[in-house]
Amino acid sequence: MQRVGNDGRRRGMLATLAGSAVVLALAGAPFVGFGADHLDAPDLMPPSDRADADINDLYVFEARRADRTVIAVSTHPGAGAIAPLEYATDVAYKMKVDGNGDAVQDFAFVWLFNEANDNGIQKYKVLRQGRRGHFVRIAVGRTGRVADVDGGGKAFAGLRSDPFFFDLDAFRDQVGGAGGGRTFCDGSETDFFADLNANAMVLQLPDGDLGRNIGVWATTNAGSTKIDRMGRPAINTVFNAGADKDLFNVANPARDRVRFGDNVVGVLQAFSALDMEGAYADAEAEGLADVLLPDILTYDTRTPAAGPLNGRALADDVIDVELNIVTGGFGFGGRDDTGAIPSDCVGPHGDYLNRFPYLGEAHS
Description:
Number of domains: 1
Order of helices and strands: HEEEEEEEEHEEEHHHHEH
Largest sheet: 7 strands, antiparallel
Distance between the termini: 41 Å
Number of strands: 12
Strand content: 15-25%
Oligomer: single chain
Structural class: alpha+beta
Radius of gyration: 19 Å
């Protein structure tokens, strides 16, 4: 990694750390979780014990047409095994958008689902919510099918292959201390998520409907009760522990740096201490925290996605850089650019589609 000036360094930090897909937590010692944001409540439970409202991942990227942008949210970790297959009928699944950089929602796309029929198919509608709470219906559809969006665009909801990828077994042994003998890049690499399914909501819209420079995060709510939220991958799973996980899930992004910044700094210093060069200095860890929070995925809709610095595409492999940076590999000052764990040697899945809805078909 090249050494850069202050602005370039902040962009570099965001590009590498913001895409964290490592499942870490710090509560005296690290333990193994499930995935990017899968099961991110305390004790590896779904937030509010609602697996049907648990957000796995958020993606924002350029569509097959360059003048279209895709927002995709996967939910229901281990759908059909850990989580049910059906969307909750009492939950509003929201894609929130900030258009001016103040970390406050300017508009949102709200997905609402009806009860499933005898074949397991659910009707749904997508509403666009303005800042003052005004709702306009923009799409109606059925799970498993592509629907049209008013004004141009497409919508999809239903079971898909979980797009997330990571060698969780190696992490469990090498970092989590499970004692199984696996290490990253040991020739026995396994993608824990390769055969798992998740539910997905995918919205493809003209760039003009979103704006140019946007920030996106996803939430789930049951009435006035907040359940889960996610922007950049693994922020909650990596950097918060205990009750702070629940607090983070119901908090608003604008307060993230004040409320959770110390957690981020502490975890960065703890895991960078694995590096031969020792832990990040206070100022270094604070600087990294400044680019990680608030937990919002930023994107320039005029450009292709380029990792979490500029959206996140399904195949963006940020895990190698994330492991490297979290374990001491960001080149501050005299530090070198290699952390204690520079790679997991697992790459993207081979089932992503080059057409809408882009996530692979569900595994049978």
